[in-house]
Amino acid sequence: MGRDNSIWNVIMSYKLNSILLKYFVLVFLLIVIPLSAISISVYLYYSSNAEKEISSAYEQSLFKIRDTLDMIFADIDRLSLRLTMDYEVKKLLSSNKKEIINFETYDLLNSVRSKISIPVSEYIDSLYLYLKSGNCVISSSGYYADLTTFNDNDWYRDYTGLKGNIRSLVKYRHTNPLSVSEEGKDYITLIQIAPFADLSNQGAIIINIDVRKFGQFFGDVNSSSIEDVFIIDDKDTVLFNSNISFIGYAIDKVPLLEGVNSGSNISDMINIQGNKKLVSSTGSKYKKKYSYITIVTIDKDMKAGDVRNLLFYSILAGILLSVILAFIISINVYRPFGNIVSIINNPERIGNTNIFSNHKGYNELKHILSKILDFNINRKKMESNLEQYLSMLKKAQSIALQAQINPHFLYNTLGTINWMAIDLTKSENEVSHMITNLSDLLRLSLETQDNLIPIRDEIEYVKKYLEIEEIRFDNMFKVIWSIEPDILDCMIIKITLQPVIENAIYHGVKQKKEKGIISIKGSVKDENIIIYIEDDGVGMDAEKADSINRELKEDYIKEDHSIGLRNVNRRIKLVFGEKYGVTLESNRLKGTKVEIMVPKVEKDIS
Q1: Measuring CA to CA, which residue among 11, 12, 34 is closest to residue 319?
Q2: Is-cis flag, bond preceding 195, omega within 30?
Q3: By three-state DSSP, how is residue 193 classified?
Q4: Over the stretch 209-250, which tens digit does the pLDDT of each residue have?
Q5: pLDDT tens across 438-463, in order?
Q6: Local structure of residue 177 (DSSP, 8 states)
Q7: CATH fold of the domain at 469-599
Q8: How many CB atoms sit inside 10 A of residue 448's CB?
Q9: 238 close to 293: Cβ distance less than 8 angstroms
Q10: What residues does each domain of the chain span?
Q11: Residue 203 region by backbone torsions, left for phi larger than 0, else alpha for psi between -120 and 50, else beta
């Protein structure tokens, strides 16, 4: 773009209406909106898939934890079943208190004590064998005592609650410390009625799992980044959690488990205490009465902040790229407009349109520019023609003013001659009649102010003229009229027919030796009035007729002392338009036919 069409000048000239600015905004929006939409869609897709992948990964971790816990509970059950089905244990269970004390059962007691005192595992704190018949307890520490004097006997209340087909129980319990220096212990206690083989109730195996040791053991086994693991029993009570304060409470009382249903295989994102958590739950495959729940803080693993930062910088980079691309595209799109404006403002810069049409790269823009230049050239031609027309008009006005002086003088003179002729003969005669007709012709041409007159008046004018010519030429021609009545009240330019009929007389029938015929016809055709003036005079050759027809199209007024064929033609075109006017056909020795075409006008439009 030129200096006058620089970007800054264009924007300052047109401000918000600038096409350049509108193109820039449009292209910018067309780039940045899809780009931002794609970035946000990718972010949402990534976030959604990341949550699904994380959820799936932690579900697998949950299943591993479930399998581990099921295996632990299975080992504990196998231990309790093995002891309840042991021959010596069953024999000891069937003994009473007295039999245990006597010498014969002493070896049996020591053998059973050694079986339950072996180290069981890293998380089992103690194991008790309760003898119902003797109401006594044998512990894994080798201690043997009456139940009433046994220091850990609060499990007995739960034992007595086992009735019917319910022969085992798992429950959390807290034991009081034995001394001030010691701390109480938290147990997950398994109570299994013995013996296992029949429905008799001769005692029980009590296995105490130390919650703290179990948590440490489970933490060593669980290598995943799961934050919290809950073991829930069939009464929706927390049986185990690293936070001992939650154990023993119903899950709806634990803040972390609000709205969580245990037992079903679910994995869902939940807002817990303002943090987004992945909560997964599944039931035990080993014992249906257990269920496991894991909780993970998703924001930490997903690194959502990094993802949001990446999205922010991506959108920012996209906006900057959009600005650059929008600027480049809008400048290139606007450049044709700038060239057009430049040429309109300075058309002299390119003067020849052929440089566009002949160029190999001719396109729509060059076509538009060539048309603009053509218009500019035509405008200059019109300005030149207008100056010529104005000059011709001044000349015509001068001729018209000069012509008005002579007819007025003739009109007054003819009036005097007419009275003198009548005075000589004491009555009207052919001379006075000719003078009267000639006077009427002059009066029509001078006193009629309207440029358009009815065809009826024009015919009356022509007839007066013909009366004079018939006297002059001693009836050497005959006039035949054929005018449709419908056109008599239509308008025509005054003194249109007379010059054409005058030509027919002087250049047609006058040159013949015999009497000639002039035919005048008028009709309507396609909302136009067509008047034919035809003579059977000497005519002219086709080349001269074509030459006259070409001259009739030229834009000038003859500066002579008669109103000729060309003047009639030009006056018609000036009043009614270029499509109307005079044309002629002629053949040597056969005559000439002149056609006058004007629009059908019911009233004066001048």
Answers
A1: 34
A2: yes
A3: strand
A4: 888 888 887 676 565 567 788 888 888 888 888 888 888 888
A5: 777 776 666 556 778 899 999 998 99
A6: P
A7: Heat Shock Protein 90 (3.30.565)
A8: 14
A9: no
A10: 351-447, 469-599
A11: left
